[in-house]
Amino acid sequence: MMQSTHFINGEWVAGQGHDIRSIDPAKNAVIWEAKSASADQVDAAIKAARQASVQWAAKTVDERLDIIKAFGAQLEQNKDALAKVMARETGKPEWETATEVGAMIGKIGISERAYHERTGTVENPMPVGKAIIRHKPHGVVAVFGPYNFPGHLPNGHIVPALLAGNTVIFKPSDLTPMVAQETVKLWEQAGLPAGVLNLVQGEVETGKALASHAGIDGLFFTGSSRTGKLLHEQHAGNPGKILALEMGGNNPLLVREVEDTDAAVHDIVQSAFITSGQRCTCARRVFIPATEQGDAIVKRLIEVTGKIKVDDYDAQDQPFMGAMISAQAASQMVAAQQQLEDSGAKVLLRLTQPDEAKGFATPGLIDVTEIADTMPDEEHFGPMVKIIRYSDFDKAIEQANNTSFGLSAGLLSDSQQDWDYFFARIRAGIVNWNRPITGASSAAPFGGIGESGNHRASAYYAADYCAYPVASVELEKVTLPGKLSPGLSM
Ligand SMILES: NC(=O)c1ccc[n+]([C@@H]2O[C@H](COP(=O)([O-])OP(=O)(O)OC[C@H]3O[C@@H](n4cnc5c(N)ncnc54)[C@H](O)[C@@H]3O)[C@@H](O)[C@H]2O)c1
Ligand SMILES: O=CCC[C@H](NC(=O)CCC(=O)O)C(=O)O
After folding, report:
1. How much is the pTM?
2. Is 149's C-beta closer than 6 angstroms to any atom of ligand 2?
3. ipTM given for this complex
4. Active site: which residues (predicted)?
5. For residue 438, is it within any domain?
6. Domain assignment present for 443
7. What is the bridge-based pairing of β-strands 408-412 and 251-255?
């Protein structure tokens, strides 16, 4: 029987495109199979969203919020089941997917606050009448999600977009269709009117059909810089379409003088290896002083990293790291490590793929000091950290900034002076002090500069790209001014 996996105009329908499937990367088992949405089905989803758009935008914010809160209640009721689906489809441990569902629930209250604070209505008195700032939804927007947070990150676009009065076509990562399907079912159960949120599943073809469609007013994308750049090029010449791009990073973490070596090692590990290194904010380059204390940090980092538990998402004794998204992703990390080694880097702890048919990769550390100025500026999206030993803080900051990305960066140092110096010079959208550089707060803006984004930060600032401001000067009755302009007589 054909699976109905696309949600168009309030109905679940079977795809008319080609065969797609989802694989549990920890068990190497097919867990979902269907047909992708064809270009005609993408078109139908956009038409449904357009049709639903007037009535949805005409509702009061509180009416929209009631439905969004009902979705939050559905998430709460189904949190264990959804977390299990996420773990199966991504390989992430169940403790971590439980926190992902928690973040989805938390997003609702945060989006409500952000809506009022960032896009609320403001009145200013004028000598005659008043000036009012209001916000309107863009209309029909497309949301593209990545695989690493298949619930939380698309949710971070969808909730504020719907709250602002937009209707949405959601195209999840083709690696995580099941999480998307289960999430959209919860929206359906929450009573969202037909056409307000549509789901089209598929690979690049489906993505292209949606992104290039003339019927969308905006596109909110979270994913790789490669795809984000393609979308940016595709939208060149369309200044009226809002494009919000959240992309990757080649994030630096600098260590200076710290009293507590273990605390520094903990923050490095948490920054580098959480989610098997598959977070956009993960530390990719760690700068450690070429001093005795630096040697001690490296030694301890090797010990602690070597003991990280990597295992099945549903293991009784939960691991810190589960499988990566696919066996292919793990083997790409092995190949990336080999390339660096061939270029002169020194492996301190080897990243391995214990089973070529599965997505597991053990965490790796590689010293790239000798090739730091010549190695490619690449985001290696997995559990491998490049260590750079430095003697000069200014040079280290310069190297840290020597990237076309600019998502997250951090400093581990017990000195306030170091922090002030670092903060003034480092270039990134997220800059932390003595905290891991992963685990960003949804109550703050989230985004990067350079190839990491296009200055339309998400999380708390997602409200900004979900609505456009309208300025009005108003007076209740047409009235002659008390004083006419010079040279004018009535
Ligand atoms: N800055 C952030 O907020 C953030 C968050 C999570 C992940 N990321 C980044 O995302 C990447 C990992 O996620 P990914 O591999 O799923 O990203 P990806 O770019 O491969 O895919 C993202 C989405 O775009 C779609 N897509 C791919 N090619 C397309 C095309 N040519 N036209 C239209 N759509 C297309 C995909 O199907 C998916 O829905 C990493 O680079 C990571 O740093 C960034
Ligand atoms: O992989 C990219 C996201 C990483 C994650 N960031 C957030 O959760 C941002 C907050 C939000 O979107 O609400 C992290 O920093 O760990």
Report:
1. 0.97
2. yes
3. 0.96
4. 246, 280
5. no
6. no
7. parallel
